[in-house]
């Protein structure tokens, strides 16, 4: 698990500079609403449809029925908008939802031949590693490159892209509307003047994130101050901090995004040299996040925002 998470962080560094993706207007009327359970829409929208993705304008001639997803975020979004029944294979890191057809396909080191063996009529991925987009396009497979989102609007746009590309535009609209509502409610419910500092841990190295990253902007919704913003080397938004740096900053809140991969908790933090007396540790303000939710930019981002909001509210009340 450790090499995979390191690779993911490296991939993020390489793709955050790519432009966000927006849905093209060259579609017919939207379909009837689709459920988030993976059932297809009652009536698909008109095709061909053109989507503006990270790899440019992509035209999809017919409603795809054999989708391959090499991105865990895209997999979550495809099932959420109602395209689950159209997905025939997903990468080895796509573990949500449980019914996703998980395979040994790699999104980090994609193999064109292995992907083509699934006879896809649409492939969705987050990075163009080893020129995979060109390799698949060369044999006539439509490809949507949906890179790591730099802001919430990018995440919304990508969900709209996937809805349009799969004939589930109405389902995508519902997902985005639900996300926005949940996020707005979480932010509105949190105290506005808490003036709290925080530390977000990616792994036990420890690597963290600055406020310029996607997850950093989630914390910014609540006016939190990120201790990593003052790191000596910001490393493109993912600085490697020293234990001494964190101890000296003594953040009010600590968010752990390495609970599943590395078994971290308030108890394990207390065993680190110099960390047992951290305010967040002694004050029971160490928040265990789901590693996957904290590292993806799909529909469950709203759950992350809600969890952060609840933590802020509890900390401010103490």
TrEMBL record:
Q: Which residues form the signal peptide?
A: 1-24
Q: Name the keywords, alphabetized.
A: Signal
- Region: Disordered; residue ranges are 24-44
Does the UniProt entry include the keyword Cell membrane? no
| SUPFAM superfamilies cross-referenced by the UniProt entry | Helical backbone' metal receptor
Q: Where is the Fe/B12 periplasmic-binding domain?
A: 66-316
Q: Extract the Gene3D superfamilies matched here.
A: Nitrogenase molybdenum iron protein domain
InterPro entries xref list: ABC_Transporter_SBP (IPR050902), ABC_transptr_periplasmic_BD (IPR002491), Vit_B12_bind_prot (IPR054828)
Q: Which CDD domains match?
A: YvrC
Family statement drawn from the similarity comment of this UniProt entry: Belongs to the bacterial solute-binding protein 8 family.
Kindly give the PANTHER family that the UniProt entry links to this protein: MOLYBDATE-BINDING PROTEIN MOLA, VITAMIN B12-BINDING PROTEIN
Q: What is this protein called?
A: ABC transporter substrate-binding protein
Q: Which organism is it from?
A: Planomonospora corallina
Q: What is the lineage of its organism?
A: Bacteria, Bacillati, Actinomycetota, Actinomycetes, Streptosporangiales
